[in-house]
């Protein structure tokens, strides 16, 4: 639980500041435990989850190793030095621009064959390197034994076995880092003559120095890698001559060069693995191996249940019912929020704060700003602490448990076919599900998707139809008065999501996505990780919402002093009335411009004040769910997708939210539905 005290570094901004400290950079495939090791050594916290692509931006912290302070850097997972997705590119760019003290290449020991090619590429890049064979616990359960010292000799770099989740081997890793000094390792990969020749030619054409070896840059150039091309252009290298070598070499081979080089590298990896690794699934005593076997087939059976639609869909519905409806909607939004908002803040804290403040500050204008109806304390802080935090907290607890089991990649497989109809692959399930936590974080996670088209559709749907945890909690809490109301809300939002997804896939050009996702083993969530992760996300969320809520309170205060507030609310009153709501509901949409959850909080207050009918509540919930993305999400969308796409999305979303609200209100009132 020491982690609780750590700075959290899962922020949305890429931090490129350089410190004077020697740097240790963690690199490796996704989902191998880099962030667990980062959390162990550094004073910052990076989120750990059981699916590939948890870390999508660089995280930094400081850590004492062998009595010396280092800067520790965690990077997004990458499969090879030639990236496919954006989060891999983040790591590749980092490699191009860093001269660290040492790289820790973290690999999953039970998948050595698949992971060592990146080690060989890093050796080819002639960077200072230590290989960390992590997840030794899972490898030994599978009867995998690795001869560490033989592997060290073969590769020419230090190799350390760890089970980072239990802290095993990390002391040895610390000692190895402390005594590390760079010794160039021999690059033993034998490429065929044409490729070898081309690498030699291109590297001799490179005049400048790079953070990685010229041969490694040459290999990337041979594969027309975008980042490598950018780097050599910056250094005014002879691009034309390089292009000629590349073209000539491509002609020599009937297969793409990437394929040929991957196969040739893999051949060498296979040779190494067969000499250093033994695999005996029946290892151990008779009893032990039987237990392992049955454990294996047990998790395979669960896997099947989760992935096959006949059983997978009912399981998904159960997860939603208990996780969201009962726990977030019932317990958090009902019991906890009720107590905090109405009793604790409403009856005790706020009256006391108002009285104390007013007795010290006798100026009504200032009183209004801090403790008035829309005051910084009475509205912004109360909303943030008593309403948003319990909802977000409850949601993140459920969410962390789901993440840590490895359920999300299985859900991705289950839903892949439905997602293909919306122009996305099953992989997009992960950012979409994360959107229920916080759409701002989730928009960044669209980096893990392969095609631009898929990224645009996913960002669009996140902005349009996925309610964030706080908003969802409020809506679940309010709509719990009638299961019919909740069903109407869910069907309309689900339908809109599928319809817009389907239409976007027809309109937005681009290649069809292919589905590839690594399937991590199912794991039992660790309580400490669930708590630390929930705490760090709540902290992040709190500092994200509180300033915006405070700014909203201040703007409302200025607006009320100048009369602009009434005008804005009156203007928003019109679309409210079009969808059958009282004009006062304009206030809620006005809040919604700041954040959707702020709007939802306004809706909660109107509901408590008995100002809305059953139909009104459903229509308002639907419109608010489909309403504008919040400011933070909009900014991240601008950063990830560009200003044009972001503005186009917002322009479409705003009127369409009211159009859907109008239709639903029309249908419900025409058919005389009473809720
Ligand atoms: N059994 C076992 N699980 C581990 C070990 N190390 C990490 N894990 C689990 O592996 C999963 C992935 O860990 P992370 O630290 O998030 O992996 P990462 O390499 O940072 O992944 P990305 O951010 O996706 O690139 C989590 O569920 C961890 O609990 C280990 O040594 N043994
Ligand atoms: Mg990570």
TrEMBL record:
One GO MF term: metal ion binding
InterPro entries (UniProt xref): Fe2_transport_prot-B, Fe2_transport_prot_B_C, FeoB_Cyto, FeoB_GTPase, G_FEOB_dom, Gate_dom, P-loop_NTPase, Small_GTP-bd
Any one Pfam family match given in the protein's UniProt record, by short name: FeoB_N
Segments crossing the lipid bilayer: 380-403, 424-445, 457-479, 486-508, 540-559, 571-594, 614-635, 647-668
Membrane-topology annotation of the record: Multi-pass membrane protein
GO terms under cellular component: plasma membrane
Start and end residues of each FeoB-type G domain: 21-183
Binding sites annotated in the UniProt record for Mg(2+): 39, 42
Localization in the cell: Cell membrane
Keywords for this protein: Cell membrane, GTP-binding, Ion transport, Iron, Iron transport, Magnesium, Membrane, Metal-binding, Nucleotide-binding, Transmembrane, Transmembrane helix, Transport
Binding residues for GTP: 28-35, 74-77, 134-137
Protein name, entry field: Ferrous iron transport protein B
